[in-house]
Amino acid sequence: MPDLRETRKKLKIGMAALAAVDIIALAIFFSPIVGSETSRRDQLTAQWKELQLKTREVEPLKGLDKKIPVARTQIDQFYKDRFSSQQSDVSGDLGKLAQESGVKITEIKYKEKQDEGSGAKEIRGIDPAVVGLRQVQIDAGFEGNYLQLIRFVNALERNKLFFLVDSVELGGQESGVVQLKMKLETYLKTGAA
Predict the structure, then answer these.
(1) By the 8 A CB rule, do 161 and 65 touch?
(2) The domain spanning residue 91 has which CATH number?
(3) Beta strand extents in 11-163 (DSSP E only)
(4) Is 30 among the domain residues?
(5) The pTM is what?
(6) Which residue stretches of 31-63 are H helix?
(7) CB of 136 within 8 A of CB of 68?
(8) Distance separating alpha carbons of residues 182 and 179, to the nearest angstrom
(9) Which element (helix H / strand E) includes 67?
(10) Does residue 138 register a pLDDT over 60?
(11) Which residue segment(s) compose the domain that 136 sits in?
(12) Whole-Å CA distances, 192 to 64, 92, 118, 187, 188
Protein backbone atom coordinates (compact mmCIF):
# COMPACT_ATOMS: atom_id res chain seq x y z
CA MET A 1 0.00 0.00 0.00
CA PRO A 2 1.32 3.43 -0.90
CA ASP A 3 2.65 5.51 1.87
CA LEU A 4 0.04 8.21 2.52
CA ARG A 5 2.41 10.46 4.41
CA GLU A 6 4.90 10.55 1.57
CA THR A 7 2.14 11.35 -0.95
CA ARG A 8 0.75 14.08 1.30
CA LYS A 9 4.22 15.59 1.69
CA LYS A 10 4.77 15.64 -2.10
CA LEU A 11 1.32 17.15 -2.60
CA LYS A 12 2.04 19.94 -0.08
CA ILE A 13 5.38 20.71 -1.75
CA GLY A 14 3.68 20.83 -5.18
CA MET A 15 0.91 23.14 -3.91
CA ALA A 16 3.48 25.41 -2.24
CA ALA A 17 5.47 25.62 -5.49
CA LEU A 18 2.33 26.49 -7.47
CA ALA A 19 1.40 29.14 -4.90
CA ALA A 20 4.92 30.61 -5.16
CA VAL A 21 4.63 30.71 -8.98
CA ASP A 22 1.24 32.46 -8.66
CA ILE A 23 2.67 35.06 -6.29
CA ILE A 24 5.65 35.72 -8.58
CA ALA A 25 3.33 36.05 -11.61
CA LEU A 26 1.09 38.51 -9.75
CA ALA A 27 4.12 40.51 -8.61
CA ILE A 28 5.46 40.76 -12.17
CA PHE A 29 2.03 41.61 -13.59
CA PHE A 30 1.48 44.51 -11.17
CA SER A 31 5.10 45.65 -10.94
CA PRO A 32 6.37 48.86 -12.61
CA ILE A 33 8.70 46.75 -14.79
CA VAL A 34 5.81 45.58 -16.96
CA GLY A 35 4.01 48.90 -16.79
CA SER A 36 0.41 49.83 -16.56
CA GLU A 37 -2.32 48.72 -18.91
CA THR A 38 -2.32 52.18 -20.54
CA SER A 39 1.43 52.09 -21.21
CA ARG A 40 1.17 48.57 -22.65
CA ARG A 41 -1.71 49.72 -24.88
CA ASP A 42 0.32 52.77 -26.02
CA GLN A 43 3.28 50.53 -26.74
CA LEU A 44 1.08 48.14 -28.75
CA THR A 45 -0.36 51.08 -30.73
CA ALA A 46 3.13 52.42 -31.49
CA GLN A 47 4.30 49.01 -32.65
CA TRP A 48 1.17 48.62 -34.83
CA LYS A 49 1.87 51.99 -36.49
CA GLU A 50 5.48 50.99 -37.06
CA LEU A 51 4.33 47.72 -38.65
CA GLN A 52 1.98 49.61 -40.99
CA LEU A 53 4.78 52.03 -41.95
CA LYS A 54 7.21 49.19 -42.68
CA THR A 55 4.51 47.41 -44.71
CA ARG A 56 4.00 50.55 -46.84
CA GLU A 57 7.77 50.86 -47.34
CA VAL A 58 7.99 47.27 -48.56
CA GLU A 59 4.88 47.49 -50.78
CA PRO A 60 6.74 48.70 -53.92
CA LEU A 61 9.03 45.67 -53.68
CA LYS A 62 6.16 43.20 -53.99
CA GLY A 63 6.34 41.43 -57.31
CA LEU A 64 9.82 42.81 -57.99
CA ASP A 65 10.85 39.54 -59.57
CA LYS A 66 8.18 40.12 -62.23
CA LYS A 67 8.90 43.86 -62.62
CA ILE A 68 12.60 43.44 -63.47
CA PRO A 69 12.10 41.52 -66.74
CA VAL A 70 9.38 44.01 -67.78
CA ALA A 71 11.72 46.94 -67.03
CA ARG A 72 14.53 45.30 -69.02
CA THR A 73 12.19 44.86 -71.98
CA GLN A 74 11.08 48.51 -71.73
CA ILE A 75 14.71 49.71 -71.54
CA ASP A 76 15.67 47.64 -74.57
CA GLN A 77 12.67 49.03 -76.47
CA PHE A 78 13.64 52.59 -75.44
CA TYR A 79 17.18 52.13 -76.78
CA LYS A 80 15.86 50.54 -79.95
CA ASP A 81 13.28 53.28 -80.64
CA ARG A 82 14.95 56.43 -79.34
CA PHE A 83 18.58 56.03 -80.43
CA SER A 84 19.67 55.73 -84.03
CA SER A 85 22.80 54.05 -85.27
CA GLN A 86 23.30 56.57 -88.10
CA GLN A 87 24.00 60.28 -87.91
CA SER A 88 21.98 60.79 -91.09
CA ASP A 89 18.84 59.88 -89.10
CA VAL A 90 19.60 62.72 -86.70
CA SER A 91 20.13 65.19 -89.56
CA GLY A 92 17.01 63.96 -91.31
CA ASP A 93 14.85 64.34 -88.21
CA LEU A 94 16.12 67.87 -87.54
CA GLY A 95 15.44 68.86 -91.16
CA LYS A 96 11.99 67.29 -91.13
CA LEU A 97 11.03 69.00 -87.86
CA ALA A 98 12.29 72.36 -89.15
CA GLN A 99 10.33 71.98 -92.40
CA GLU A 100 7.11 70.90 -90.63
CA SER A 101 7.22 73.85 -88.26
CA GLY A 102 8.21 76.36 -90.95
CA VAL A 103 11.65 77.08 -89.49
CA LYS A 104 14.73 77.64 -91.65
CA ILE A 105 18.03 76.00 -90.64
CA THR A 106 20.79 78.62 -90.92
CA GLU A 107 23.69 76.50 -89.66
CA ILE A 108 24.28 73.12 -88.12
CA LYS A 109 27.48 71.55 -86.75
CA TYR A 110 27.92 68.06 -85.38
CA LYS A 111 30.67 67.03 -83.02
CA GLU A 112 30.87 63.35 -82.17
CA LYS A 113 32.63 62.04 -79.08
CA GLN A 114 33.79 58.56 -80.01
CA ASP A 115 36.26 57.35 -77.41
CA GLU A 116 35.15 56.29 -73.92
CA GLY A 117 37.60 58.63 -72.21
CA SER A 118 36.17 61.67 -73.96
CA GLY A 119 34.38 62.98 -70.91
CA ALA A 120 30.93 62.57 -72.43
CA LYS A 121 28.24 63.80 -70.09
CA GLU A 122 26.52 61.14 -68.04
CA ILE A 123 22.79 60.57 -68.57
CA ARG A 124 21.23 60.30 -65.11
CA GLY A 125 24.44 58.87 -63.68
CA ILE A 126 25.02 56.37 -66.51
CA ASP A 127 28.09 56.65 -68.71
CA PRO A 128 26.86 56.50 -72.36
CA ALA A 129 29.86 54.39 -73.41
CA VAL A 130 28.93 51.72 -70.87
CA VAL A 131 25.47 51.23 -72.39
CA GLY A 132 26.77 51.25 -75.98
CA LEU A 133 26.15 54.88 -76.94
CA ARG A 134 28.34 57.69 -78.18
CA GLN A 135 27.52 61.34 -77.71
CA VAL A 136 26.85 63.73 -80.59
CA GLN A 137 26.83 67.45 -79.79
CA ILE A 138 24.88 69.67 -82.13
CA ASP A 139 25.27 73.44 -82.51
CA ALA A 140 22.49 74.74 -84.71
CA GLY A 141 20.99 78.03 -85.82
CA PHE A 142 17.37 78.49 -86.91
CA GLU A 143 15.23 81.35 -88.21
CA GLY A 144 11.50 81.86 -88.17
CA ASN A 145 8.81 83.79 -86.42
CA TYR A 146 8.38 83.27 -82.70
CA LEU A 147 5.42 80.89 -83.05
CA GLN A 148 7.25 78.72 -85.60
CA LEU A 149 10.28 78.46 -83.32
CA ILE A 150 8.08 77.48 -80.38
CA ARG A 151 6.47 74.77 -82.51
CA PHE A 152 9.91 73.56 -83.55
CA VAL A 153 11.19 73.30 -79.96
CA ASN A 154 8.00 71.49 -78.89
CA ALA A 155 8.27 69.07 -81.82
CA LEU A 156 11.95 68.49 -80.96
CA GLU A 157 11.04 67.57 -77.39
CA ARG A 158 8.33 65.16 -78.60
CA ASN A 159 10.39 63.65 -81.41
CA LYS A 160 10.95 59.90 -81.48
CA LEU A 161 14.74 60.34 -81.50
CA PHE A 162 16.24 61.35 -78.17
CA PHE A 163 17.43 64.99 -78.02
CA LEU A 164 18.66 66.87 -74.97
CA VAL A 165 18.44 70.65 -75.25
CA ASP A 166 21.47 72.11 -73.47
CA SER A 167 20.88 75.77 -74.24
CA VAL A 168 18.61 78.06 -76.21
CA GLU A 169 19.56 81.58 -77.23
CA LEU A 170 17.20 83.98 -78.98
CA GLY A 171 18.79 86.47 -81.34
CA GLY A 172 17.66 89.75 -82.80
CA GLN A 173 14.38 90.20 -84.59
CA GLU A 174 14.20 91.71 -88.06
CA SER A 175 10.82 92.13 -89.73
CA GLY A 176 9.27 89.39 -87.63
CA VAL A 177 12.14 86.89 -88.13
CA VAL A 178 13.72 85.66 -84.90
CA GLN A 179 17.07 83.90 -84.77
CA LEU A 180 17.44 80.90 -82.48
CA LYS A 181 20.74 79.28 -81.55
CA MET A 182 20.55 75.90 -79.84
CA LYS A 183 23.02 73.49 -78.34
CA LEU A 184 21.67 69.96 -78.39
CA GLU A 185 22.97 66.51 -77.78
CA THR A 186 21.86 63.14 -78.87
CA TYR A 187 23.38 59.70 -78.76
CA LEU A 188 24.13 57.15 -81.45
CA LYS A 189 24.41 53.43 -80.92
CA THR A 190 28.04 52.31 -80.77
CA GLY A 191 29.45 50.24 -83.60
CA ALA A 192 27.61 52.11 -86.37
CA ALA A 193 28.81 54.83 -88.66
Answers:
(1) no
(2) 3.30.70.60
(3) 104-113, 133-144
(4) no
(5) 0.58
(6) 37-58
(7) no
(8) 10
(9) helix 64-82
(10) yes
(11) 84-189
(12) 35, 17, 18, 12, 8
